[in-house]
Write a structure and sequence with these properties.
Shape: globular
Largest sheet: none
Oligomer: single chain
Order of helices and strands: HHHHHHH
Number of strands: 0
Helix content: 55-70%
Length: about 140
């Protein structure tokens, strides 16, 4: 799986957290992986154990930091609070903030660019600009 695909699948699973309690997330991870593998065609392999581990570790490292991440986002989001943000945008921001602050292998510019790409794919019409603006203030 490419780094972008890993990030996208991490985003999708992290988005599940918006609809499930933290103690349900292990089950959500298992269901997500089963569904992912069921959707694969002959030309695509099932997700590797290494990729599963990456996604799992990333999601379960972000979840306990959500309060801290949200406070940091709130501190720079003028006129907005995480409570008012769309769930897709907020999940993208959380993932990007995590990458900027905690993942030393991802340069901030790459994290921002990838967040904007996720916003283009999953967010609304104004999501890319909104996310870019918030993350620019974070950096």
């Amino acid at each position: 799986m490419t780094r972008r695909e890993l990030r996208e699948n991490t985003f999708i699973l992290l988005f599940h957290r918006e609809f499930h309690e933290t103690d349900e997330m292990e089950e959500q991870f298992t269901l997500f992986m089963e569904e992912y593998n069921d959707l694969q065609t002959d030309e695509f392999k099932n997700i590797s154990d290494k990729d599963k581990s990456f996604i799992h570790d990333r999601v379960f490292d972000i979840i306990p930091k959500i309060k801290e991440i949200d406070e940091a986002i709130n501190s720079v989001a003028e006129g907005w609070s995480t409570g008012r943000m769309g769930r897709v945008d907020l999940t993208i921001l959380r993932l990007a903030y995590y990458e900027i602050k905690y993942d030393k292998d991802v340069p901030a510019a790459v994290a921002i660019n990838e967040a904007v790409e996720l916003a283009k794919k999953f967010g609304g019409e104004t999501s890319p600009a909104f996310i870019n603006g918030i993350l620019a203030k974070v950096v």
